[in-house]
Amino acid sequence: MIIPQKRQLWRMLHYVGLPLLLLIAWDVLVVVAYKVLHWWWIGSSAIPLALYGSAIGIIVGFRNNSAYARWWEARILWGAIVNDSRSLARQVCTAPHANPASGDSAELAAMQTRIIHHEIAYVHALRQQLRGLDPLETIKSTLPPEQLDRVVGHSNVAIGIQREMGTMLTQMRQRGWIDGLQWQAMDSNLDDLLNAQGGTERIKNTPLPKQYDYFPMLFVRIYCLMLPLGMVESLGWFTPLGSTLVGFMFLALDKIGRDLEDPFDNSIYDVPLTSITTTIEINLRQLLGETHIPAPVIPANGVLW
After folding, report:
1. Does the predicted model carry a pTM greater than 0.70?
2. 2-7, long-range: CB within 8 Å, 24+ apart, which pairs?
3. pLDDT, mean over the chain
């Protein structure tokens, strides 16, 4: 995710890139043909640029609203994962109690640590899966080898980790460390995490229809080709200035929509999953009282990953 900084004109122009350069070249070519070669037929002020621009603006705006809705829903779902992870960790840390006479306090503490470490591994694994990366490389430092081996065979590693967490919560109930209501509250948090995961996977696995991407892009480019043809009669040598300015706005709007379509594309326009999951890990390790915690993710070159 790009973090707002001071406005940089060069970065704004570079955002559109090659299409903008081609538009400038086309504008200059049209002006030279009209003013130097006297190809009067190439320009016509009768081209209804305002009408076409309004129609294309509506189409592009509708597509961009749909793309941003996907991006914002992804952020909301990950906000729910943050809240549910913290709630589950708090319950695991405070609800269970061992009978002092039984001498299993150390075993309970180890179980609490394992569950919370599994939750940390879960969010990192889910992040990697959504980005199309290997989740095992990220979680092997969090889970012990014997527990890591149990989730390796799952096609969905995050769900495999959830199963391990559910098993450990059931063991805590069987040992009498938590009662039925406490177990139900924690299990409900696991359900909420899976519901949020399902929502993120729905966004990832259901892209916008191809028509939403292709036709707005096609219409914008056709409109940009028409701009100098409709302006050259009235603007003359200043046609590249007016045409490039209007074309830049349409090209930028078109690219914005395409960049937001997939919020888990492992690009600079993503929801900042690395930052979010690292924040969860910091919070959960501090709940355990650990001192060796990762540093928060900070923006690099104006981008928060």
Report:
1. yes
2. 2/268, 2/269, 2/302, 2/303, 2/304, 3/299, 3/302, 3/303, 3/304, 5/302
3. 86
